[in-house]
Amino acid sequence: MAAPLAAMLAMAFVLLPGPARAQAALPSLRLETGAGQPLDLAGFRGKVLLVDIWASWCAPCLPGLRDIERLAERFRSPGFAVVPISVDRGGPVAAVRGYARAGVSGLPLYVAAPNAATAALGMRALPTTILFDARGREYARFDGPSASREADIARALATLMKSSSKQRKPR
Question: Are 49 and 83 in contact (CB under 8 A)?
């Protein structure tokens, strides 16, 4: 019984090569929008940020995109941004196909070079979701899929949004 369970768990998420490292600050990472415009991840500083790194070939990533879309809608506010980053080697074309296969239409589209994203964000698995506070500090990280992933991210995001709104209120 242990062998089949271990095999299923091994297929549950994709491990990426490279060292795991804690990311203290929002890094500079060159992104490309779905329209081909260059953008830097560090340009989102000043907002609470949900960064989701995914790929169209990653089976657990596609249902995860639907989770991210629901979270984007639930927490929508001027001080919050969702940045789903595709690390597909096929660029925006592959990412658009991934969105279509996932049934996602309400998220922005960003693409980054896989090696650059792995290095900048210290990724160890796909999907990886990272929450950053408005100062650009990493608040929480969710590596790989889990049955409670959306709920776990929602709890952390609610706490982060609440603390961020308190910091913005004049005293």
Answer: yes
